[in-house]
């Protein structure tokens, strides 16, 4: 396996060992078998809990009262000419106290997430049974359900994710074995390995946007035609 990372700039301490480390890591990265982490029993309905309306990720006190959360804002990233972030980059946490009655309006609740999951499962089942045409067009959107409606897609996705993660971890271990530490190398390697996925996501988003615009234009034309006939 030959790897070529022309855009990866290494520190002087790591430059001499880079080729050896990458080759060792590539040889030590076997393909991973996909794991099925969905151990939940299908078709069962969980009893309603008093915490169903508490936003997910917000802990409840002994009185079943949601704790007040905080909101986080990320600063804009400033980069150098080589595309790397500058030392001025920072994560700013701005505490903002939120009233308890405002929590349901700011986060999805556990009940919301359960409803989303049930809708996704129903849509995936309709696709499997070939009865999507019985549903209203506004209720059909398979975007994001590829792993649910295609076993091959799920297996490939898990295998790819596992292999890339293992590659990064093994590279870190190889650095330690050579008595060196270069987090910038790991960061750059991770960004390059994720580049294709990011580009695919952008292309998919552009396609969805174009399709949505065409649908809206079609609806506008139909409404205009209907108005003229009246």
Task: Describe the fold and architecture.
With 230 residues, the chain is mostly helical. The protein has a domain at 54-108. It is built from 8 helices and 2 strands, in the order ααββαααααα. The protein has helices spanning 12-15, 18-27, 103-106, 110-129, 146-149, 151-177, 183-193, 195-229, and strands spanning 73-74, 91-92. It has a two-stranded antiparallel sheet with strand order 1-2. Helix 2 (18-27) crosses helix 6 (151-177) and helix 6 (151-177) packs antiparallel against helix 7. The longest helix has 35 residues, at 195-229.
In short:
With 230 residues, the chain is mostly helical.
Summarize the main sheet. Answer: 2 strands, antiparallel
Q: Rg from C-alpha positions?
A: 24 Å
* Proportion of helical residues: 40-55%
Mean model confidence by pLDDT: 67
**Which residues form runs of ≥5 with pLDDT under 50?**
1-22, 28-44, 59-63, 68-78
Reading side by side through the largest sheet, how are the strands ordered?
Answer: 1-2
User: Helical region count?
Assistant: 8
In one word, what is the shape? elongated
Order of helices and strands: HHEEHHHHHH
Percentage beta strand: under 5%
């Amino acid at each position: 396996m030959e790897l070529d990372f022309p855009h990866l700039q290494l520190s002087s301490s790591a430059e001499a060992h880079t080729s050896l480390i990458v080759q060792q890591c590539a040889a030590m990265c076997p393909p991973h078998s996909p794991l099925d982490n969905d151990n939940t029993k299908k078709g069962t309905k969980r009893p309603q809990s008093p915490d169903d309306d508490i936003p997910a990720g917000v802990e409840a006190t002994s009185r079943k009262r949601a704790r007040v959360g905080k909101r986080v804002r990320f600063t804009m990233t400033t980069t150098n000419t080589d595309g790397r972030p500058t030392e001025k980059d920072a994560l700013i946490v701005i505490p903002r106290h939120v009233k308890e009655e405002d929590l349901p309006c700011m986060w999805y609740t556990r009940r919301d997430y359960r409803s989303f999951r049930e809708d996704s499962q129903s849509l995936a089942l309709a696709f499997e049974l070939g009865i999507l045409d019985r549903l209203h067009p506004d209720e059909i959107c398979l975007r994001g359900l590829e792993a649910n409606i295609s076993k091959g897609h799920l297996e490939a996705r898990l295998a790819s994710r596992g292999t890339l993660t293992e590659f990064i971890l093994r590279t870190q271990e190889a650095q330690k074995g050579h008595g060196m530490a270069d987090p910038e190398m790991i960061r750059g390697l991770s960004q390059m390995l994720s580049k294709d996925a990011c580009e695919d996501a952008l292309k998919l988003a552009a396609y969805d946007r174009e399709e949505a615009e065409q649908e809206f234009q079609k609806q506008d034309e139909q409404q205009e035609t209907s108005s003229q006939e009246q």
